[in-house]
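Q: A reviewer asked whether we had any structural model of the full assembly, not just the individual parts. We don't, so I'm hoping you can provide one. Inputs are below.
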Amino acid sequence: MDETVAEFIKRTILKIPMTEMMTILKAWDFLPENQLQTVNFRQRKESLVQDLVLLCENKRASLRDAALLDIIYTQFHRHQKVWDVFQMSKEPGEDVDLFDMEQFKSSFEKILRRALKNVTVSFRDAEENAVWIRIAWGTQYRKPNQYKPVFVVYYSQTPYVFTSFCHLKSNTPLLSQALTVASNHHKIVKMDLRSRYLDSLKAIVFKQYNQLETKFKSDFHGGILAERKEPLRCLIKFSSPHLLEALKSLAPAGIADAPLSPLLTCIPNKGMNYFKIRDK
Amino acid sequence: MEWANDKSKGGVLAHLERLETQMSRSCKNLEDPPRETAESDLGTKIRKLRCLRDKLRAEVKQRQARIKASTANAEPDQTLEISEQEAVGGKEENMKAILQAYRFTGLSGKRTSRGVCVCISTAFEGNLLDSYFVDLVIQKPLRIHHHSVPVFIPLEEISAKYLQTNIQHFLFCLCEYLNAYAGRKYQADQLQRDFAAFLAGPLQRNSLCNLLSFTYKVEPQSRSFPFCARLLYKDLTTTLPTDVTITYQGTDASSTSWEEQRASHENLFFTKPLHQVFTSFARNGERLDMSLVS
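A: Here is a predicted structure for the entire assembly that you could use as a starting point for your response.
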């Protein structure tokens, strides 16, 4: 096994919290169950990792296997990344989208490889007909940097792509091209929507929200809020399973002035949560 | 500049006025020769203050009116004026009639203060499947406030075509797409769940379930999976494929019986739902077993 691959696997496994170790290794499914049972999971983490890496070496783990482990780790720790959203569009009046996942993957990889010799592309199918893609970028002369990959999550036959924040902006046009062409779209634009919470972003762009009623509860039972002539100045932190809907219902409930600031209400409709305030 | 020292005049109002005069002053200085008389400056200040006061008074009145409106109705809709409300009353009646008529096709609805919330219940072969809702606001133009339609269903296209001109057709069309999607999904789910033993590897599918690809066998006992199937559903309003390609990938390519089987499979997939095709494979397999035993 290549030393760099061994090091990469070691560092990835070291990141995994002990409580998740078994779960993630099982999801990876590279080391068989019977082998895992021979390992002492109660020892110090450093020694455990050494044992696991040795097992991987014996099984000749490849860069491909290591990349897959990285995807699984990231899937379990998706909140550690900041996700951007891109929106793709087609020409009007196009034929029905007969999306073939295998064709998409092969096309996507081909486009990247044609442009960049040094790149590592890995895929992992996910629930709801989605795919997680991991891309490690290199340059013409340097091998891919496995420690700064970009992750892309794409739900088939939708116009939205979620990508983890990438420091190397120079590769964004190539990534955009690969995504649009492989998924049979024509254009791609970055939305002003960004969050650590993929599920939140999904809910906004896929417009998956129900009509729950959330009441605003105040601890000040008529204390500071009662009989005030001037407006009250305070910082309120809202948290709710459906925050945007809750905010929208404040005005009808008579708790907030109508209409609510469009900055709050436009988030679902416009799909934006990232606003740039400039001088006029 | 006297304004800079007037920090004792606290409050947003004063600050705003200060900024305004500053701005207008700097504009004036660029255009006209500077007029230094204190009187004219004071005059400007008075005018600006009056203007601001009037603006704020008007805003306060507006807000009071809005809050009154909020408390008057159960749910306010500031954009709907009284005259328009009467005009769209007719649309509501029409909607009610349509919904009553379509009750048995899985379409139901309930009135909301804004309009109507339509519920589309899907079904396939007598099995009740997922329901989706579309919350319509009866305004000019008619618009969708909320919905739970999956993002890969072309709701925008269907709305653009029919929502404003023919609500009936809009609902019917949406019903068609959703029922067909639910039916295709049901077939794919059934295949994966009940006939996994007949498939080599996972069933390849997509969000719309309009492209399915799998490798399969027909004899439960057999160790090899000799057939490859690729089903395309180009018509999103149907639950049966528009294109079927079955390829035989076994080693016994010369035998005519394989070609016959392949051709008959193609026909089966065209005409019967997926899981029914496999049910018949399973039954034929059983029959074969029975004949071997007896």
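A: Points you may want to mention in the reply: Residues 213-218 of chain A have pLDDT under 50 and may be disordered. The interface with chain B takes residues 95-102, 128-129, 155-160, 205-211, 251-252, 254, 257-259 of chain A (CB under 8 Å).
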